[in-house]
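Homework-ish question, so no full write-ups if that breaks the rules, but can someone show me the predicted structure for this set?
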Amino acid sequence: MRPALTLLATLILLALLPAAAGAHAERATFFPDASKGARPKHRAHGPSRVVCKPDSKARLKKSWKGSANRVQRRRSYLLTVLKRCRYRHIQQAVNAAKTNDRILIMPGVYKEPPSRKIPVADPKCEGDGYWEASGDNHQVDGRVPTYKHQVDCPNSRNLIAVVGDSLKDPDRECDHKCNLQLQGLGRESKDVLIVGDRLKQDVIRADRADGFRLENVTIEQGGYNNVNVVETNGFTVDKLVSRYAKNYGILSFASDHGLYQHINAYGNGDSGVYPGSGPEGHCKRYGIEVRYVNSHDNVLGSSGTAGNGTWYHDNKFHHNNAGVALDSFAPGHPGMPQDCSKWTDNEIYSNNENYFVSERDKYCNDVPFEKRKRTIVCPQFIAVVGAGFMWYGANSNIIEHNRIYDNWRSGMRLFWVPATLRGDNNANEQTDNSNGNRIVNNTFGIAPDGTSLPNGTDVFWDEQGKGNCWEGNATAPGHTLTSDPLLLPDCKSGGSISPVSNPSKTAADAPCVTWNPRTQPDPPGCAWFTTPPRPGP
Amino acid sequence: VTRAAALGGLLAVALAGCGNTAANSAPVVAWQDTPLVVRQPELPEDTIVSGTIRNASAHTLHLDATQVRLLTAEGNALTQSTARFTTGVTHQLYPPREAPREGEPNFLRERLGEAATVAPGRTTALVVSWRVQKGEPPPVKVDLGEGSLSLP
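A: Not a homework solution, just the prediction itself:
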């Protein structure tokens, strides 16, 4: 091929490739085949491998202490199971596992020393085929590992890796170690503690590991994520505590048929839970369900760049810097722009913590993550302190029957993100968000016990978008919905009609983009990082 | 920003002039329309100016936000200021503390509004902001490196 043709072909190929993640650096990823896959249910029977520590017996007895018949039976059964323990490290059991195995983890603290010995920059995976450009086209230090890297050096960047797809075929589907169930056998999730080394990106990574299920453990101190589920068709994360990751407590990406439930996520430098690049159900289905999550004291309770096709219900997002972000911020997330998630019966409240203060900035700048006190949260990206819902580039979402209160800046913010800001310069796509969001029958400014706890402004909207509407939202007696603009379009009328935003509101946000904790921690003109005053009753 | 505050703080001021420092030379850049001035009640020392600028020269401009200076009437550059060639909110792929050691690729810099390439006659957004303590002189001019603009 002539050089010019080769160049052209390369450019076309690059244009066709889905770029990597936006809010986190990931390889080019693809959605699984939505016609396949299913959410894995708990299995109490079937082949299993038992992992334990020398003190597991004592811990097990302590965990299952009690004289009730049920507890005694369970304790006795687990002591029998313990006799089958053949592995000291979870990764050892994963390495030995076959498809459909259960890995039973006895109470104990798991630091995975064999994985820790493997360097993050493993020389085995330095060469061609192991690295690719990031979604923002970083070519050198910012490159990201390929899937082949995960296969050949699974513990270079992951403390525990479940890598399911064989490189022998191109289908990106799980071939081995599929339907693995990693299950803590403590009475509570705290009884099995998996501790990251604060250097490897993921404590647990499930990569093309269809049917992956993780339950009843505590994970902490991930160098980026505590749990990371990538290109996986069918997954469940259940009864987990996920805390003190540098960025994300639990992250899923380009995965489908998933369930997050009974999660307690706190102390994470970006969000507690992050179902990003969610399933492309296009409002016909919700491929990931998030329920019974308590996410607090993170920078964000939940976020999802291209957080599509996800149904959140019966969750609590509170005491974060901001409650919930949905966005179309960054380039290349599969599924851009964000669309078609549903929020029902959630509580989003008291998101007024502020980690963007100068003392925190100094500490976070001076002390690298691996040397920080594990409980100190350092913001990794920008957030609107005091916001409940923080939606920047969101389409066709349903927000119904949620309770949103005591967020001192705004209960919800809805803003446009011109497509060019995520690297899409197609003129026809610049106003492809934020459109078609229905915010109906929610309660603003009232705690569950009826106390009036107002938001700074219930709804702060940039006035852009088509088909955005508000209807039937309740407020405390004597209060009306506070909003900017004062009048919000209702749904009966068809909702909003403006393709462009109020420029003064857009301008007011713009300097916040320049935030950099080292060089620009408090950008002039940006109000986001100042704790808003508590609104009057 | 409440609606009332936004409206109250929104000062649409026609520019007295724009262009290069030499009064009789052709301008390199010009405001396309009257820029907005936004002040937020909770930030009384801060000002934002947002508008669209046009390349009025005959050559392509390569603008770099790190080179933009906001100058007082005495020609002193403010120490607390920002500049971006975009409006709207986005962020980088890597957390700022962990940015790759190599420089940012131009694709990224332009996406984030840190840089802009503007062909003759074409436009780009410009948002600048600054903070001045009470009694300190405000800026009167944006120095873009290639050309300058008066501030309202």
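Now go work out the reasoning yourself. Hint: The CA atoms of residues 357 and 529 of chain A lie 7 Å apart.
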